[in-house]
Design a protein that fits this description.
Length: 246
Amino acid sequence: MSTNYRETLYSNYHSTQSGRASLTDATTLFNREKWRFQREILPHFKGVKKDASIYDLGCGSGSLIHLLKDKGYVNLKGLDLSQEQVKVAHQMGVSEVQEGDAIEFLRSYSGKFDVIVGTDIIEHFTKDELVDLLKLIQEKLASNGRAIFRTPNLDSLFASVFANGDFTHENYLNASSAQQVMLACGFESASVHASDVSVQNPLKELLRKVLYLHYRLWFRLMIFATGRSTRNMVVTPNMIITANKK
């Protein structure tokens, strides 16, 4: 009998993927994730009250929850399938993280969340599964609730770095298809934003900014050459999706 690939890969996901890819220890990776989340996820919490009910879907090591705690948010919950990831979260003092099926928990949850976050998660589902998941998230959001996702951006010049860098990825979106599926699944509005591409080293960051300006210009020129507009396109390897419920 064949083994479901998810059972094999998610059981040791930290050591075979997230931790391995970072080329560093768990603490350094955890702090690096917090630094990145502060730059690309936290800005989308504008207007969210500190006592808002927040659910981190497939929360990994809990680095986003730790950041939100640092910023004064108090009603936080996260679930992850990976025993390794949950162990790291607890080592980092993130007691809000529990091991379990984040989707099954959401299905059985009788209340509503003000914010549901899914970073590097929606690409792990087939199209049918993703539609079911997005409908469920929309249903479990409170009135005026918000969903925030980070996912690979197929329009990026180097899309394969993120899209195909994980064997467990099942589907890929660009800005247009992301808005399409969010609206089709019942969200009132959806927008797509560039992800953060900065680096922590100041000298490298200066060089990166210069190169990125040239990269964006070249990208726009290439799209223009095909007779298309870049007005609704995102060029970063990842993109941030925000979807709002009425």
